[in-house]
Amino acid sequence: MSAALTRLKTNSPVRWTxxxxxxxxxxxxxxxxxxxxxxxxxxxxxxxxxxxNLDEGAEVDGQTVPLGRVLAGELIAGxxxxxxxxxLTDAEDAEAGLDDxxxxxxxxxxxxxxxxxxxxxxxxxxxxxxxxxxxxxDRGRLxxxxxxxxxxxxxxxxxxxxxxxxxxxxxxxxxNELGDGIGEAADGAAELADGTSQLADGTSELADGATQLADGATQLATGTQQLSSGTSQLASGASELANGQTQLADGxxxxxxxxxxxxxxxxxxxAGATAVVDQLQGVIAALTQLQTDLAGPSADLENGLAAxxxxxxxxxxxxxxxxxxxxxxxxxxxxxxxxxxxxQGHAATIGTGVQTAASGATGMGxxxxxxxxxxxxxxxxxxxxxxxxxxxxxxxxxxGTGLGDFAAQGEQLASGAQQSASGAQQLSSGVSxxxxxxxQLADGASQLADGTTELADGTGELADGTTELADGAGAxxxxxxxxxxxxxxxxxxxxxxxxxxxxxxVQAEGASDELFNASGVPLFAGIALWAGALAAFLVLAxxxxxxxxxxxxxxxxxxxxxxPAIGLGAIQGAAAGIVLPIALGYGLAQGAGFFGxxxxxxxxxxxxxxxxxALLGGFGRFIGFALLxxxxxxxxxxxxxxxxxxxxxxxxxxAALAGFQSIAAQVAGAGGSAVLLVLWGLGGVLLTAFxxxxxxxxxx
Length: 700
Known about the structure:
It is a single chain. By secondary structure, the protein is mainly α. Helix content is 77%, strand content 4%. It has helices at 16-37, 67-76, 91-100, 113-117, 144-264, 269-328, 333-382, 385-394, 396-486, 492-503, 521-539, 554-584, 588-616, 618-636, 642-650, 652-665, 670-699; strands at residues 48-53, 58-60, 63-65, 85-88, 105-109, 133-136. The strands form 2 sheets. It has a 4-stranded mixed sheet with strand order 4-1-5-6, with helices on both faces. Strands 2-3 form a two-stranded antiparallel sheet. Strand 2 (58-60) and strand 3 form a beta hairpin. Helix 1 (16-37) runs antiparallel to helix 11 and helix 7 runs antiparallel to helix 9. The longest helix has 121 residues, at 144-264. It is rod-shaped, with a radius of gyration of 70 Å. The two termini are 28 Å apart.
């Protein structure tokens, strides 16, 4: 085949060493690309980077937290096989290293790094995000920036995860403490509900007692008012009784004096007998009338004294409970003490007056009994006293004999009358004092009734309030219990798991951060084969050396021209199809598919480059080189502009890249790419035929 090929600049035959060199071009390109770009993250130690730690640290709970030092340690002490060679330096050396290319990247940790990173533990208004400054050298390699970002992001993500786990763990610890606190509050609220329920029961009983006290005080006020009215009547009756007794005493004294005079002047009795009898008849009528008049007041006096004695006893018995209730009601102690002293004083006065009145009433009763006894005895023996006086007129002689005895008895009657008058006066004075003091007692009892009524109303409201308080405390206890059930309580292991999950709730699995790994082989294979085709026709002439003078048709000459290209392309494709699957460890079926597609791609690339070189010459080879660059750019990243991506995908290299990717991923699509390669190969043959026609016309 070397004899059929000629060099591009001369017509001398191509030596076999040139053919071997051309065949080795794809393998050399593919091998160098694989060697230089295969998984660059596994050789990160060849990249030198610097870290500048300006962090001043922060103080949290009395402890210094140097997170800048921690981050620098994460960068420097990372996995040696997947990490840069980090140098801890200062800002001046780092800047100089970026300028002269010693450092591919510089990470600067600012002064407030720790303060910002721990700001979550302080006031929420002061929370801020910690940042680091990453600078790349302008003299760095193409993907050093991406590698620097990967390494720095990995270190910061580790630190972020640690800080996040601590923060979330602290939140769940706070939940536990909050739950415990609310639980204790719920227990306290339950105890408060029990206590207030007991208080409500007590206040209800207090309200009942206060109501009873108010009723008793009201009855006391009513009784004291009745007592006031009765004592007023008693005072009036006692005054009348005193006046009557005085008159009686005066009358009896006069009668006794008259009796003495009569006894002494018995001689004159006859002359004045008629007058005496008339006087005696008047006295008898007065006594009869006095007896009639004293019947009602005596009964009133007896009833009043009995009621006063009973009231005084009840008052004395009620003073101590009333004072005790006064102290229990919350009234001022001075008021309760004054009330006790006043009531006891009035009770003593009432008791004394009642005793005095009782004594006077007893004396008056005795006197009246004596008088009535005398009158009654006379009425029993002689009938009507007037008749006896008429008889007296006729028996003055007999009367004279007993007149001395009657005078002697008159002395006793006068003395009793004087005593009765004195007792009646004392009774009148005591009852008057009682009548004067009882209204004060009635007023105090009324005030006491009003106060106890207000106390009863207040204790009723207090009972209602304590009942509502007990209900509210019960509701509070229930609500706090529900709140405790709603607050999560976690163990330390659960908090660690929750913190880790909360910090990274979504984690991508299966993705790789490796650059130019096995997915880059299709790109390397396509570029290598296209570069081999370009190299071949940078050295070899694209047309058969006898194209101009051969007495053959265009078809034959075209076939003679493309057969060497087909052979070279097949050899290059076969070499790549054998070496690369073995290097990648493909199975037999996948390796066979890769080999067949590589063989087709090598032939199609050779025919396409041959056609461009034959028809367009140097410009055609320029187009081939431009397609190589476009394919490389499109194959590296998917963010290239749309028109450039369209050119790259439609080019022979783009079709080969799609086919190799389908075989590498073991998915459908390699057949369509094979059809495109066949079309590109036929297009190259067609371009070669046009070049043959043009060359023969030029020779003619």
